[in-house]
Amino acid sequence: MAPPTSARIGVIGAGAAGLITAHTLLQDGFQNVEVLTRDETPGGVWAASRIYPGLSINNVHGEFRFSPLPMPPPANFTVTGGRLSGDDMRMYMETFAAKFLPGKIRYRTEILSIRPSQDGAYSWTVTARRLSSGNIESIAYDKIVLCTGGCSAPKIPEQLTSEKAKLAGFTGPTLHSSQFRQKLDAVLKAGKNSGVVVVGGGKSAQDVAAYLAKYSIRVSMVFTTTDAVLATPIPYPAMIRKSRLLSVLSPHVELRTGLERFLHTTWLGAHIVHAMWAFLTCVSFWVLSVPPNSPLRNAPGLFWTVSTNDEGTSRKDDFHTLVKDGKIELVAPARAAGYGADGQSVLLEDGRTLPASAIILATGFTSSWNGIFDGMRPASLTTDSRLLPASDATISVLRLGRSTASLASHEGHWKYATLARSPSSTSSHDQRGPSLYRGIVPAKNITRRNLAVNGAIFTTNNGYIDEVTAHWISSYFLEDSFLSLPSSPEDAMAWTDRNAAWLRTRYPDSLSYANESYSGDVAFWRYAQSSSTNDEERGNVFTWPFKVIDLDEIKHLREERAALRTGSSSSSSSKVSSANKDQ
Predict the structure, then answer these.
(1) Which string of DSSP letters, residue by residue, matches 126-167?
(2) Residue 569 placed within a domain
(3) Domain count, the chain
(4) Distances from the Cα of 345 to the Cαs of 128, 173, 210, 340, in angstroms?
(5) How many CB atoms lie within 10 A of CB 569?
(6) Burial 490-516 (b: 16+ CB within 10 A, else e)
(7) Is 418 part of a structural domain of the chain?
């Protein structure tokens, strides 16, 4: 019988999750590992062609990186408190790929379909098109890791598609925010006429609007709600910014320490928790000079949402300052209903029109899995005899799409005082995301050990979670005995059902907008705890919440896993076997 390391593994996507997954698999002895990406360079959402000017992320230096490679501090470290830009992330991802994955990434390769092989084996056939030549090929893999993330496939509202723009006679640029870099020159040229309308109120909409405003272009932002925001008068010290403090103030499916049980199950603790989050919100609005009547306050509460922008300290050229100075017009609450009949405006639902010579849709993303599992592919290729139809049932069988399931049996299970006054949900109570065990493995496929997902866990520090998940996946493929798994798909589905009920309890409406490939699980503020159950080793109740989270905690996971495999592990290695194990 061939050893597990002889398997041919296809890693789909060269973003953060794909890069660290491939590196971890190679380090564990899997030599036949190949990364496929449609981009010309590594990085995924941080690839050179996809990062837009003015892009900043919600992380600072020391976060969102991998343990094998240090990250140089950004050039404007002092001014921004170490805030990372899109270019900082691009350069880091390119350096990581060049150092650890030379010759392992197949660029400009578009995945057209993934389907189970027809020979009855537990393997996969990937149909791909080489963008450089147009050639289409079928590639066989024993195992697949989906690392396409939730920000790869732009979501365009039906009423705002390019086809609808043409029908209305709109002649200016219309584009998704992910195309901002490629079409920047056209936007700047057109924007000098009657201005630019940005549809959306989230982070990308704010970044794009701020960038254009600096070029003295009139910018109008149309949105109904915006994201919650965090801002500070001075950069917070690492003991607050990079510790477990905020995660302790956020309840989880299992409260493992006495401090957390006090904070989230008692009347006094709940008042302390909600007072702290309210204080952070008030400070943020004060730092950013957001008036009480501003539509920027039409946002979910920090405690209840996974949609949060970490702005750091206020700067003279940031989005909020430009709004305050009247350089960005906020049209909210409002919804774009289509294109104006004059071909030079955006029509709003209330009948108003906004003049526009360019329109940018910062309207989010849809699942990156739909197009490769359900048979969707470019129309020009559908008649190619070499393209066997992808099984329409594959995504349903794997339960990677949105599904409905009654969660009533779990209602009322978490009687936390901090969750007693949750906001009402506007989405269907039976709606749920993909059925991914631990947010990593399709529950229905768990015993086959031939498919995993990295990058589908919603978190504030993707680098940390992606690296831990990569090690979990490698142990899963290696069939390590210390990795505790459900004994059957039914048991795995029971875990996903309970987890879905918890997410509905913890975030009643926040996940209604998150697409399937970025909502397999949530480890938001609690990303470090979700990858370990060893909080007791971090110190006493007065010290461990303030202990800085450092990548040294996970830099030796490979060695610790090897020790567990041989039975020579120390007690400090116990966290490896329970990575991503919260229940």
Answers:
(1) EEEEETTT--EEEEEESEEEE---SSSEE---GGGSHHHHHH
(2) no
(3) 3
(4) 40, 12, 21, 5
(5) 18
(6) eebbebbbbbbbbbbbbbbbbbeebbb
(7) no
Report the DSSP pairing between strands 219-222 and 345-348. unpaired
* Domain match, 314 and 373 both: no
Could you read off the pLDDT of 80-139 as tens digits, one per residue?
778 888 999 999 999 999 999 999 999 999 999 998 887 656 789 999 999 999 999 999
Please, are residues 466 and 16 in contact by the beta-carbon 8 Å criterion? yes
Residues 317 and 376 in one domain: no
Q: Is the dihedral of CA 240, 246, 248, 253 positive or negative?
A: negative
Q: Are 490 and 357 in a shared domain? A: no
Instruction: Give me the phi and psi of 431, to 5 degrees please.
Output: -70, 140
Please say whether the beta carbons of 219 and 383 come within 8 A: no
Does 519 reside within a domain? yes
**For residue 501, what are the β-bridge partners?**
none
Whether 58 has a pLDDT exceeding 70, the answer reads yes
Is the domain of 148 the same as that of 161? no
Under a CB-based contact definition with an 8 Å cutoff, are residues 147 and 11 in contact?
A: yes
Q: How far apart are CA 333 and CA 222, in angstroms?
A: 8
Radius of gyration of the chain (CA): 24
State both tokens at 583.
């229940």
Domain containing 345 — which CATH number? 3.50.50.60
Please tell me the number of Cα atoms within 13 Å of 142 on its side-chain side.
Answer: 15
Whether residues 19 and 121 share a domain: the answer is yes
20 in the same domain as 93? yes
Q: What's the pTM value of the predicted model, to 2 decimals?
A: 0.91
Percent of the chain residues past pLDDT 90, beyond the cut: 61
Phi-psi group of 31: left, alpha or beta (phi > 0 → left; psi -120 to 50 → alpha; rest → beta): alpha
> Residue 124: helix, strand or coil by DSSP?
strand
Q: Cβ(547)–Cβ(244) under 8 Å?
A: yes
CA 529 to chain centre: 18
Residue 308, strand partner residues: 228
Q: Which two tokens stand for residue 252?
A: 């989880």
- Whether 471 is covered by a domain: the verdict is yes
Looking at residue 532, its pLDDT comes to 65
Average pLDDT over residues 39-44: 96
Domain of residue 185 covers 156-223+332-361
Q: How many residues does the chain have?
A: 583
Each residue of 309-348: pLDDT tens digit? 998 887 788 899 999 999 999 999 999 999 999 999 999 9
Q: pLDDT tens, 337-377?
A: 999 999 999 999 999 999 999 999 999 999 889 878 754 33
Say whether both 315 and 379 belong to one domain. Answer: no
Find the distance separating the first CA and the last CA of the chain, reported in whole Å.
34
pLDDT tens sequence across 497-524: 888 888 888 998 777 778 888 888 988 8
In which residue are the tokens 């592990």 written? 569
Q: Which two tokens stand for residue 501?
A: 């009920």
d(CA 205, CA 309): 12
Q: Is the peptide bond before 378 cis (omega within 30 degrees of 0)?
A: no
- The more confident residue out of 267 and 56 is 267
The verdict on 393 and 507 lying in the same domain is: yes
The rounded distance, in Å, linking the Cα atoms of 119 and 212 is 54
